[in-house]
Design goal:
Blueprint lengths: L8 H11 L7 E2 L12 E7 L3 H4 L9 E3 L3 E7 L13 E3 L3 E2 L7 E4 L10 H12 L12
Antiparallel strand pairs: 1-6, 2-4, 2-5, 3-4, 3-7
């Protein structure tokens, strides 16, 4: 077959997300002025009570936003690929924050121009705090 295109799993996930656009206008966490997000942005939210416990467990902290209910870390797009973020954490594609009346405030801005928190250390910190075994460490069942 000449000219056939192969689609990666990342492309299929992105296309599936685009099939279900939101009905209402959404609030998106902004990338601060002077910073760039060459890999796009998603966000990981945790309840506010976990926020101060996550911060010291990270080797690098990117942009963090917070309100009374949640803290959000900016991560590169598709950082949920092959990861099951444990409850009560929530993965927000496109750094869109649902169910909030106003954008949360920026409480941490890193030095440099990249707004990202590395997703694997963030995932491990959230797993540790929630008592969840990382998905790659769980036994495989048939």
């Amino acid at each position: 077959m000449t000219g056939a295109r192969t689609l990666s799993l990342n492309t299929l996930v992105r296309l599936q997300r685009e099939l279900h656009p939101p009905a209402a206008p959404l609030l998106r966490l902004p990338v601060p002025d002077g910073m760039t997000a060459p890999m796009g942005c998603d966000a990981v939210a945790v309840p506010a009570r976990f926020g101060p416990l996550v911060m010291p467990r990270l080797p690098r902290v990117g942009c963090v936003y917070a309100d009374e209910a949640h803290w959000w870390w900016l991560v590169p797009s598709d950082s949920d690929y092959a990861l099951e973020w444990p409850a009560p954490a929530r993965y927000d594609t496109g750094a869109v924050v649902p169910d909030v009346p106003d954008l949360p405030g920026l409480i941490h801005r890193p030095d440099g121009t990249l707004p990202y928190t590395p997703p694997i250390p963030l995932y491990l910190a959230v797993c540790r705090l929630t008592g969840t075994t990382p998905s790659w460490s769980r036994p495989v069942t048939a």
